[in-house]
What does this fold into?
Amino acid sequence: MTRPAESFVEITPEVLLKAYACGIFPMAESAEDPSLYWIEPEQRGVIPLGGFHIPRRLARTVRSDRFEIAIDRDFEAVIDACAAPAPGRGKTWINRRIRRLYGELFRRGHCHTVEAWREGRLVGGLYGVSIGRAFFGESMFHFERDASKVALVHLIARLKLGGYCLLDAQFLTKHLEGFGAVEVMREEYHLLLEAAVEGEADFYFFPPDAAIAGGVVLQSVTQTS
It folds into this structure.
């Protein structure tokens, strides 16, 4: 279900957080379109933190520490990369208003990045919104093979150890389905969301500047295939 955001109320960071807590989020038609629309999917993609699957090849890559994983180091670079054209994605929904709103959430500590770096270059990552014990994944990107996947594995470990209970992926894709993502109906999602936003979690269970070895990450994300 979609509806024009302007017909609802002026979108501020406070309104945006309340919207997430109610199960809706904004998107734009394109980077050039200044309008935003509220989205409330009938079926929601969710990655169960206890049912996350890691292919064995990816687990070896995580364990190798090929990438340096950083937290909240460069939000602007991450959202720029998420907005850039990529194979299979010729345009983006990330417009200026999205950049401004999520940038403000980042400065307030409600938006986080997980970044994969190699040889001083940002090569993959993701960003999302954190409220209570819920994390809402927004977008991810990669410039090198497996970079965004490794960032996702590190995110899962951080959420599990930090006391989160909900990872909202918005929409189920074949890519996420391979990691154990499932689709839940709106009513079930709201029950999960209500329990999650009422609690407290610690995204910085590991300090943001701490280098966490891949082996430690895999110990908390145990399901492989």
Notes: The CA atoms of residues 10 and 31 lie 19 Å apart. The longest strand covers residues 121-131. Strands lie at 2-4, 25-27, 37-39, 43-46, 68-71, 111-118, 121-131, 134-142, 166-170, 182-185.
